Amino acid sequence: MSRRLRGEAWALAAILALGAALRLYAIGRHGLWQDEIGSVFHARAPGSLLDPLSGHAPLYYLALRAWLDLGQHVPGGQAEGSEGWVRSLSAVFGLLLVVAVHRAARSDFGPDLALLAAFFAAASPVLVWASREARAYSLLNLCVFAAWRAALRAQASGRLLHWTAYSVAATAALYTHYYAPFLLVAVAAAWLVTARPRGVAGMLPFVVATLVAVAAFAPWLPLMLRGQQGLETLFWEIRGDATRNTFPLKTFLVLLGRSDPAHAFGAMLEALVPGRFTWASLLVLAPMLGAAWRWGRRERRTRRLLAWGALAVVPLLLVLVASQWKALLVGSRYVTLASACLSAIGAAAAALLGGRRAAAVVGCFGAASLLAVQPLYRVPPSEIREATRYLDGHSAPGDCVGVVSNKAFCYTYYARQPRPVYDLPWEVPAVGRRVERSSSLHDRGVRPEDVPAIASFFSACRTTWILYNEETSWGVDMGAAVLRRGLLGSGFRILEERRFTDTRLEAYVPAGAGTGGPHPR
What pTM value is reported for the model? Predict the structure, then answer.
């Protein structure tokens, strides 16, 4: 027994080493994209979260603030502001989730299958992706998973300490992300499947512990509701553009197909049959679920498997149903917990094969995962950093910067030699219409009637650099072409234009100006 436990510990250590390598390799290679930069701004100024239109729960940003402070004490003193350090907090949460998956699967299915589940979670491209972004999703997954396991342990022991742990984890989830209620409803469903409480009396402790979590979140609830009301017009506009020509069933299949382990095999098949990623994943997922069910019936563990499946699938269904009548966005990031839950189901499917065939499946999954995560290392999610550094090196005193799509904070974050920067069109005083953060995307974009005021405003600048970070936002044209044509029609000359993946940079000089323009330092 002692040798077996040591072997299991070494195997888990190897799996965690693999998970850490996948999450930390080249984690700081690419610059932060706009939402990650927003995370840093909120972490450094937590008071900004009290603005309802920030749209964010506070816990992750408070944790990130502490993490940034810790980075100041890392030997060398350079970690605190680096991309790698900023993102590595999510990697820590992601690795803790792998440990939690192992412990939960060991309790439900035994040590061998637990190691398989931990391997699938550690190598999951979706969970690696969530662990390499300075966003709240990795922490959300950990909190929700912890709440589920604490509720099961509390039901088994009946101890107040364990019910308190469930309440704390559920409260932490609510303070991490506003989509947590959907996942906590799934926790309730998974708990009911496994615990099988007898009557109202059997459910009462769970209900009371849940109400304690809701009461703990109540002080923040008015702020969340005001923010949702203020953003409702914007969200309906985004939802209309993001989901055009789609329908709920298709969206559900897409989200399910982007969950591991099927996602990894789908990515491998995508290399052979381009453009069929979702359907390739679903073709893998269907037999995987069937094999897992057969294993569960053989081992009399179907109820446990159903609980893991409920935690994976119920949030997808709830988000889709809610999005039909409420201003909610639907995206893969919000439901990445599905991959952690399907890891145990995938392990059960592999266990049914047994021996060499199971080893072959695990090996293929590892190879497919390595293939699927390659874009995370090679393809930058954004090149706002590169565009800003280029502007630093080629601009001069007297130059101005105009930013389309309300992304001035992205420029100021990376600028080493900041120039006067203006969000267009709302920071040009002479623009004759009111534009605010709560305005719709169409109203935030540059319109033809805004161009004369913008051109007049920038005519006093030596060179005007226009930085387009996302010329379209959620499918809405932010007016890049309108601004470009308007400036040229107003007599401005374009001196240079460069493309940096999601960011476009253009340099203009006003009519009658000298050579001016970019001068490399």
Answer: 0.93
